[in-house]
Structures are given as structure tokens and as C-alpha cells.
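User: Please predict the structure of the protein below. I'd like the answer in C-alpha cell form so I can feed it into my own downstream comparison script.

Assistant: Understood. Taking the following sequence of 423 residues as input:
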Amino acid sequence: MIRTITLCAMAALGFSVAAQAADPIKIGASLPLTGNFSVSGAKHEKGYQLCVDLINEKGGVLGRPLDLIISDNRSDIGTAMSQYERFITVDDVDLVFGTFSSKLTFPISAVLAKNGMVHPVPAGGALRIYTQGHKNLFYFQQNAAEYFGEAMQGVIEDRIPEGERPKTVAIVHADDFFANAIAAGLLGQKVTDPGGGVIADLAPGYLADANMEVVYTEKWPEEGFSDWLNLANSIKNANADLVVGLTASAEEAVQLTRALKTVRAEPKMLYLSQGTQAEYKEGLGESANGVMVHTSWHEDVPFVGELAGEEFTNQDFQKAFADEFGNPPDEDSAIPFAVCQGMEQAIRGAETTDNAKLGEWLYARTKEDPVRTVLGPFSWHENGLPVDRKLLVAQWQDGALKFVYPTGEFEGVSDLIYPKPNW
């Protein structure tokens, strides 16, 4: 499936004849619109589409409209790789937007590096992606997945009195590229490249740093797992204070939480890697109360971004998204929107679509002069990971997802519910 914004559609958006006549800036994005990652892939499409539409309404970039080409990779590695090759060699795109998931991002990063393309990454946090030596990688989230445990340790040490903190933990996760990466950081494992070389030794791990004893671990298959009740019973029998569930999707997060409720497992704290999405709230209802989730975006955080050369806040994004699609956004749409913002700023700043010069401009960003997005400000290390950004932690409270960490950086931080209410 390929979707494009045609010049006729641009005319409908109010482009001038001169703008329509200018050669469009062609952008290719391969997304999982079907298959295992389709829910997040469809939301990424909306984030990209909205951003491009808003830029085109303002006259495009450098006097040229944006022409977005989106292909469905069906959540398949080979398809994603071939689509990015086609964007470059057949469609002759000026630039690309990244795909969803570490599983797909890891292989396509080699394709884009070989072709000298800037690779803005919306969702691909595994550390292995950023240790291959590829140039012009730019990750539009706060840190590599292996370091996500810092946020969980932070919320425990910052928001829970020392004598009440969890002492034991059960950690369960999907055998998924991204979930495995988060688990490696929590457990203090070594990260290896495909050839077996050690990329990073993460010992002792965030759980050990927080003085917690791991009493149970389990990994379930990446696809086709359905034995949630047996897994939940094993978690219950471990009697851990903290349960960490690293799922590959919001749907898996719903299944795990429902199973824990069914068997009446009652940890003091339930912390998930997925669950900020509306699908989680709809699937759990009141049962989500007290569940914590890390996130790269939250509606209450007052980030001030830029779009089409003008200030564009997080709140502006939410209004534009709701006006366009009839429902509020979540992080799966906010992240790709930020990618588009960053690339548009790079084109304006470098005054070209030449990828080498775009990469130079992005690398030149600093904390004082960053790319400004609805996810906050970005500058990057040479390996493509952001400089000095903290992951957010949110908690479901009475049907609303509240922002609870970090404290001291923004207004609007909510009190933490701890321990988690019983089911």
C-alpha cells in the first residue's frame, strides 16, 4: 500500500500556483500498517501526515511543497528494507522518515547509511542500532532502551519514602528486540552485537542499583503467546513487591494486566513498557488504576516546539490532531510528528535537502540551540542518541493518565499513587 499527498491535494490545502509549480520535496516512510505492529504503525502515519499537512498549509519549505510517500511494510523486515531501497533508487526521494520498532529499524539503518541518507528514528531504541558506526542517525526519544530503567529507579527513589520502597521484583517480557533491550538494562546484562562482541556491560543493573532482589524472570515468545494466566500465576507465586512487564504492544499489556487481575496478583507496584495508549485504557477500564508506564510524551508537559518557522507547542499539536482525526493523540503519533518537525527545521536551517548538509546541521545542535519539538528539545551525540534527556513516567489514576516523573522540571506533576490499589 502506498499513500501520497498529491499536488491536487496540495491545491485543496490552499497552495498558490507558484508553490504548486515548484518541485516537491519527496519524503519516503515505510510503516507497519498491517501485521504485528499495525496499531502503532497506523498512529505513526497520522503523526507524519498531520505534520506534513500543517507545513504545506503554511507554504511548504524553501518554497516547495512536501510530497509524503508512505508504504506498508506489513511489519516485515525484508519488505521494510526493500521499500527504503526503492524510495532512494526508484522514487528518488529527497529524504526519509524512519519506521516503527527496533526490529525494523536495526536492518534499515544499514540500508540508509549505505545510501548516505539522514535517518531520523521515531521508534527504535535498542542500543545495537547506535553502535554500528552509522553516521546521520538521530533518535527522537529520550535514550536507548537499555537505559530506560533509569526512569523507573528515579520514580522509586524520588517519589517513594525509603522504608516503603519495593524490595523484590518480578520481571517478565516479550522476546522482542526492544523489550529485551530494556530488560538488559534492568538486569545488568551484557549487550552484544550479532557477531558476539560486547557492546556494553550494564552490570549491576538498575534493579540492583535500587537494592531490589529479582525473585522471578520469564520471557514469552515474540509471536503467538496466549498463556497469560499461567504466567500471571507464576508472577503471583513469586510474591514480588514490584512487577515489571515489558510487552511488545499495548495489546499485550492489556492481556498481561487482565491476567494479573484474574489471578488476584497484588504487587505494590506494576510498571509497564506499554500502556499509555487509548487501547490500554479501553481494555482495562478502572483496572488500570495505579499502573505506571514510561513514556516519551505526555499531554500535560508544556514543551514548546517549532513548525513552519513558528512556535508550535505541545498543546497546539493536541488541538490540531483532535481537529483532524476526532480523537486525542498519544505518544505513538506525537513521536513521528516530532521527527517531521526536526527534519523540517533541518531543511530550513541548512537551506537545502542535501542529506550530508542536513546531517551536519543536526549534529551542530546544542542544548542552547536545539531542535524544538512536541517531545521537547533535541541535540545528539555522534552515535545518534540524544544529549541529556529524561524519560517521562505516567500513571493511570481514575481513568486519566497522569504525569508523575520527573519532578522539578515542569508544572503539573501529579501525586503518585503507591502502593497500587488492589484489583
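That's the full C-alpha cell string. The chain has 14 helices and 19 strands.
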